[in-house]
Amino acid sequence: MKKDQIVVIGDIMLDRYIHGDCTRISPEAPVPVLQVKSTHATLGGAANVAKNLALLGAKVAMIGLIGPDESGDTVRQLLSEAGITPHCPAWIEKTTTKTRIVARNQQMIRIDTEVTASLEAPLEKELIDQIDWNRTSAIIVSDYAKGTCSPTILQLLMQKAKDNTTPVFVDPKGRDWSKYKGAFLIKPNTLELEEFLGTSNEQDMDNLMQKRILSDLAIPNLLWTRGSKGMTLVQARGQKHFPTKKVEVYDVSGAGDTTIAVLVHSYIQDHDLEKAIRYSNAAGTFVVTKANTYAIKAEELQEIIKGLDS
Which member of 10, 78, 181, 263 has the lowest number of beta carbons within 10 Å of its beta carbon? Predict the structure, then answer.
C-alpha cells in the first residue's frame, strides 16, 4: 500500500471569532459595548495544521482529544468538512476553545476555555494505535502543552515511527524536550529555543544546540524560526540561514501551523529539505498578512513557489 497520508497528533483547539462595532461605552461599567455583526469558528492548534495540509491537497488524519461539548461537535464537523480523517475521542472534560472579540478588525479581548489532558497508559496507547503505519508518510507533532503530547504518548510514537522509518516533525512547547528524542526535525521559535537552552546569548546557543538537541536528543535537523529574521537550519555540519522578505504583519495567529504544514507537505514530495524550508518560510510570511487564523490554499502556495523559483 502506498504511503499517502500525513498524520497530525497534538492539542486540538477551536478558534471562535465574534465580530462587531463599538460605538459607545456601557452605562454599567467603563467598558465598550460590542454590537455583534457576525460570528464564525475555525480549527485551531494542531487541527489548524491538519486543515492547512488538507487545503494543500494532502490526505490527513488528525489524532487528538476533545470534550463532550458543543465545541467538540464543531471540531468534528469542521474536520469532516475539510476531508480530514478524525481520531478525536471525547476523553477530556472540555474542548480547548479560544474566543476572540474583534471590533473593526481590532482584537479587544480573548477568552480561553481549556483543560490539561491527563490519560491513563491504556488510553495513551489506544491513541497511537489509531495510526495506519502502512499509509503514513510523515508525522507532525503539534504540541501546545495541553497534555495530548505526553511523554508516554510520544515515546510510543517515536518507537513506532522508528520501526516504520517514518519521519517525525515536531513543533515543540515547554522545557522538557526529552519526549521528542529521535524526531527527524524540531521547529522551535526563538522564545521556545531560548527557554529550552536557558540562554539568549547566540554564541552559547550555537554550542548548546549542537550538544543538547542534535547530539543528546538525536534530532538531526533543528529549524529555528526567527520571525522577521527568517529561519535557520542547524545540522551537525553547520548552519544555513533563510531570510524572509519584509511585510506588514496583520495577524500572527496560526502562522507556525502553516509553516510546519507546508514544510512537511513539500518535503514528502521529493525529500529536499532546504527547498521545503524555502517554501514554508515564504508561506509563513504570506499568512501573517491575513486576518484571523488563516490556512493557506494550494493555489496560493503555487503562486508563492512560482515567485521563488522564477
Answer: 181
pLDDT at res. 172: 97
3-class state of residue 119 by DSSP: coil
In the set 69, 132, 257, 309, the catalytic residue is: 257
- Quick one: fold of 5-12+44-94+118-309? UDP-N-acetylmuramoyl-L-alanine:D-glutamate ligase (3.40.1190)
Residue-level pLDDT at 250 = 67
* Contacting residues for 129 by C-beta, under 8 A, at least 6 apart: none
From the list 73, 80, 81, the residue with the least C-alpha distance to 14 is 73
DSSP letter assigned to residue 3: -
Amino acid letter for position 290: K
What is the distance between the alpha carbons of residues 148 and 145, in angstroms, rounded to a whole number? 8
CA distance 168 to 138: 6
Could you report the per-residue pLDDT of 190-243, keeping only the tens digit for each? 999 999 999 998 888 988 999 999 999 999 999 999 988 999 999 999 999 999
- The pTM for the full model equals 0.93
- One DSSP character per residue, 174-215 reads SS--GGGTT-SEE--BHHHHHHHHT---HHHHHHHIIIIIII
Active site residue 272: no
Interval 21-52: pLDDT, tens: 998 999 999 999 999 999 999 999 999 999 99
* Domain coordinates in residue numbering, the chain: 5-12+44-94+118-309
Q: Are 62 and 50 in contact (CB under 8 A)?
A: yes
**Closest C-alpha to 131, from 35, 216, 211, 61:** 61
Amino acid at 86: P
- pLDDT digit string, tens, across residues 86-113: 999 999 999 999 999 999 888 999 999 9
